[in-house]
Structure formats: structure tokens, C-alpha cells
Amino acid sequence: MIFNKKEKEVEKLLMEHYARVNEALLNLKDLIVTYLQDDRKFKEASLLVHQSEQAADAIKQEIEAKLYAGAFLPINRGDYIMLAEFIDRIANQAETTANLIVLTRPEIPDFLDNDLTLLLDKAIFSFDGFKGALENMNKDIEAVKESISRVVTFETEADRLEWETIKKLFKSDLDLARKLHLRELVEDIAFISDLAEDAAERLGVMIVKRPL
Q: What is the pTM of this model?
């Protein structure tokens, strides 16, 4: 495909958008780790999550402005706008999860520590797989397919871990209110992997729609 200056700028902005969203996920990981360690620095990590989400949102708006200004053919602009929206939802979910922890201060039992961090790792790995698809979307279709497959693999693993974690939680002796509170946290973290898969599938649809 032959790109003009505006289209190349959109491609660059998409990678910058990815970087800020990934940054939000890594800051969320720091928040959860420090929170589990009863370290007051988790508040600082929460602020960084919010800052990364705001930066990601600003880049999404810049992408939209470039598209409205004429980047890509009109028939393709909606696809790029939707792709940016799907990516941005991941940063939004990182912020939602951070807010849940900071505002409600869940009492997390030791037996859930590893599951929660591993569940977020699966989400980060899923989004990392998406990066390969994004980088190759206008270069190497087979590489895109392989990257999307990695995203789906990690999302499937996250689903299985979410199920096992919730089952473990409800088999415990914790009171029901605490179980429900913790289930919300587990589901919030697991949802990040779902959103990474959604973004990958959206990109896959864009590829399929292209003329041969």
C-alpha cells in the first residue's frame, strides 16, 4: 500500500497510542504489586495509571483529527477510528481497575496474591501480542495472523485462570460480601485480556476487508 504523509502520521500515532496504553497496564501492575505488599506507594502508581490513560486519550483524539483531515480513503477511516477506540478501552479499563483498588481498598487474602498478578501478566502478554499485529498491519499479513493468534492464546489462558481464581475464592471461608468485592477485582483485571482480544479481532476484520 502507498501511504501519503497523513497516513504515515496516523500509523506513527497508533504506535504511540499503543505505547501509552501499555504504559497504563505496567503502571497498574506496579499498583497491584505495591498494594499487595502494603506499600503506600500504590497511590503514586495509581496517579501514573491516570496520567497514562489521559495521554492515551489525547493521542486517540489526535488520530481522529488526522483521519477527519483526510488521512486514508473515506471508506477506511471508520475502521481506523474504531481501532483506536478499541485500543483506548484497554487504558480505560486499567484506570477503572486502579480506581476500584484505591477507592474501595479490598482486603486481599494471601492465597489470591499470585493469581491476581498472574492474571494481569496474561493481560499484559495479550496486549504485547497485539503490538506485533499493529506493527505489521500494512506490511506482513502472516505476521498479523500469528500475532492475533498469540493474543487469543493468552486471553484463553486468562479466562481459565479467572475461572479457577473465582472458584478458589468462593470455596474459601471468607464472608460473602468480601468474596463479591474480590470477585469484582478479579473480573476487572481479567476483562483487560478480553479487550486486548477485541482490539486484535477488530484489526483482523480490517485486514480481511481489504481488496486482494
A: 0.92
